Amino acid sequence: MGNRQKMVFGNWKMNLNKKEAEILCNELNDGLAIADVKVGVFPSFPYVSQVAENANHFSIGVQNFYPQETGAFTGEVSITQVKDVGAELALIGHSERRSIFNETHSFLKKKVDASLVAGITPVFCCGEPFEVRNAGEERAYVLQQLEESLFHLDKRAIQKCVIAYEPVWAIGTGLTASTEQAEDMHSAIRSWIANQYDQECADSISILYGGSCNASNAKELFSCPNVDGGLIGGASLKSDSFLAIIHSF
Ligand code: 13P
To answer: Which residue has the least CA distance to atom 5 on ligand 1?
Structure first.
């Protein structure tokens, strides 16, 4: 089992305004005092520093950044800039960035490297679309995502990463992976890490599940031996559902 940490992260995506972000942050501060789980939220860029300044019991992450230190990249934000305003985590490889913004394996690899250099924890997302699962090729698909963007790291570096398995067909659809499907992929991911590095390394990395995880199904999903928590979209936008998920461990 190892000593891996339980985590619940909220990906706010392109939701909430300034006031709503402030209210949610305050409600999480009030509700989290006793939680024995690492909690993080990923606000939209304009609110990252505001939430970081007010967060008491949880970490702040960014949904995106550009893997260059400084320079002529109009509209982009560097990882050191987000670190400067209090971010500690960065989502990398989310399916929406892969599919809508065409982020490739090699680009994601650069983001992983830049994030580690800056001392920011990469939360590396992987997961197959519906057609791939339908064809029974989900394991090969997810393994390739890991091999192309993560497995170039050495053992010390990969142990600084968090992995989130988010089957694309479950994101925002209300369809959740069954506990069997989630456990099957999570244990496969852990055994690939053990093969590539070693078992101790595999047992130290938290692997989160994402995709229509909510207050009603979190307890069951989190009870799977290889599911160490969740990456939550819609249900992280309200404190009652997000806190219920966190407290379902
Ligand atoms: P939902 O929880 O809304 O399905 O989103 C999951 C997700 O994409 C988190 O990154």
So the answer is: 233
